[in-house]
Design brief:
Layout (H helix, E strand, L loop, with lengths): L1 H43 L1 H4 L6 H29 L2 H47 L6 H13 L54 H41 L6
């Protein structure tokens, strides 16, 4: 009877080991996805980040990159801990899972806070950024971001194309008679911004604010969905870790 119980316990431990190994492999892949989403947000959309006064959106992306890197390292550690059957390593692994879980909660809280203040921030800052910083010295990144924003989202101005009438650059000689930047044009050519007729430039209700707000909200949803997905997987992993930890005999001291 005792031999049967020992064999049964051994089989249970082996099953847990392979379940935890499978989890760690998926967890490692998920870490790569999380890190890729964060890096993509920072690299591909860095121009848009420069248009925002708050750093919360960028901070959420950095947290994703950090969490993704830790997840990948943790996945490797989890595999080692599982096959070596060392309770100390399992303890370290569990603590790392918990830390990642807390990081994801932090990223989620930041994303939620930013979601609440996003519309107000865009209303207060985007118009001023466009009119005061576009085509100004040392503001090349802002200029590039505004041009990219207007072309990619097919919009003109913060709220409407008439916002550009207050632009420091449009009022200067450097504008060469332009009424809006050339990036407002449906077919951008040199000095096409001199004609602000709807047939020539983008006339979008709500301007670029509504377009940029939707873009950021969509990305916050992606960040949130990735975070929730990984968190759910982690909870399963922590349960498996606890079960394997309890099934292993205490290490002799």
């Amino acid at each position: 009877m005792g031999a049967y119980e020992e064999k049964k316990e051994t089989c249970g431990t082996i099953c847990l080991k392979y379940l935890l190994f499978a989890f760690n492999f998926l967890f490692w892949l998920a870490g790569g996805v999380v890190m890729a989403v964060g890096v993509w947000t920072l690299v591909e959309k860095s121009d848009y980040i420069s248009l925002l006064s708050s750093k919360t959106y960028a901070a959420s992306a950095y947290i994703l990159v950090l969490a993704g890197a830790i997840v990948m390292v943790t996945g490797v550690l989890g595999c080692c801990a599982t096959f070596k059957e060392q309770r100390k390593l399992l303890r370290v692994y569990f603590v790392l899972l918990l830390c990642i879980f807390l990081l994801e909660i932090l990223a989620g809280v930041l994303a939620y806070i930013y979601y609440q203040q996003l519309n107000e921030e865009l209303k207060q800052n985007l118009r001023e950024t466009m009119t005061q910083k576009y085509q100004q010295n040392t503001q090349e990144q802002i200029t590039r971001a505004v041009d990219k924003l207007q072309q990619e989202f097919k919009c003109c101005g913060s709220n409407s194309s008439s916002d550009w009438a207050e632009s420091v650059w449009i009022r200067s000689r450097d504008a060469n008679g332009r009424m809006v930047p050339d990036s407002c044009c449906k077919t951008p050519t040199e000095l096409c911004g001199r004609r602000d007729h709807p047939s020539n430039i983008y006339k979008v209700e709500g301007g670029c604010i509504t377009k940029l707000e939707k873009f950021i909200l969509d990305h916050l949803k992606i960040i949130g969905a990735v975070g929730v997905g990984i968190a759910c997987v982690q909870i399963i992993g922590m349960v498996f870790t606890c079960c394997l930890y309890r099934s292993l005999k205490a290490e002799p001291y």
